[in-house]
Amino acid sequence: MFNQLGVIGCGLMGGSFALALKKAGLVKRVVGYSKSPSTTETAKRMGVIDVAAESALLAVSGSDIVLISVPVSATEPTLKAIRHLVTPGTLFMDVGSTKVDVVEAARRVLGDKMASFVPAHPIAGKESGGIQHAEAGLYQGRQVILTPLPETLPTLVQRATDAWSAMGTQVLKMTPENHDAAFAAVSHLPHLLAFAYYQSVARQPAGRDFLSLAGPGFRDFTRIAASEPTVWRDILMANRAEVLKQSRAFRKALDRLETLIVSGNASGLEEMIRQVSEDRSQWQMGQLTAPRSQR
Question: Listing from the earlier edge strand, what are the strands of the sheet with 117-118?
Answer without folding.
Answer: 51-52, 27-33, 2-8, 65-68, 91-94, 117-118
